[in-house]
């Protein structure tokens, strides 16, 4: 590492935050003097890493939402079929009433 420190466990997001000098990321900011161009590169790397994680999280939420939507659709379809069957039974009973014995 640029500052000659080793951190455990190894963690790409924290390492990028360390070099980009981003506070409150679970790792101390790098105290080494980093040229502005490299600091910008480290900040861009950090943004890219965090962006990928957010896309993965968003993708998982989309899958859960999609599954929920399909489940609701299946429930509504089943309920509609049961209701249709019930109406058919009612129609038959109206047309052919049960005789009281």
Brief overview:
This protein has 101 residues and is mainly alpha-helical. The protein has 2 helices and no strands. The radius of gyration is 31 Å and the shape is rod-shaped.
How would the blueprint of this fold be written?
Layout: H1 12-20, H2 36-95
Q: What is the oligomer described by this structure?
A: single chain
Biggest sheet features = none
Structural class comes to: mainly alpha
The percent of residues in helical segments reads 55-70%
Strand content is under 5%
Query: Cα-atom Rg, whole angstroms?
Result: 31 Å
Inertia-based shape: rod-shaped
Order of helices and strands: HH
Number of helical stretches of at least 4 residues: 2
Distance between the termini: 93 Å
Mean pLDDT: 79
Low-pLDDT regions? none
- What's the number of extended β-strand segments? 0
């Amino acid at each position: 590492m640029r500052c000659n420190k080793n951190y455990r466990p190894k963690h790409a997001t924290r390492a990028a935050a360390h070099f980009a000098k981003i506070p409150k990321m679970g790792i101390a900011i790098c105290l080494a003097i980093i040229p502005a161009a490299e600091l910008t590169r480290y900040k861009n790397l950090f943004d890219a890493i965090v962006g990928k994680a957010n896309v993965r999280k968003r993708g998982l939420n989309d899958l859960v939402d999609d599954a929920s939507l399909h489940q609701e659709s299946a429930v509504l379809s089943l309920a509609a079929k049961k209701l249709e069957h019930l109406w058919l039974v009612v129609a038959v009973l109206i047309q052919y009433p049960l005789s009281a014995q």
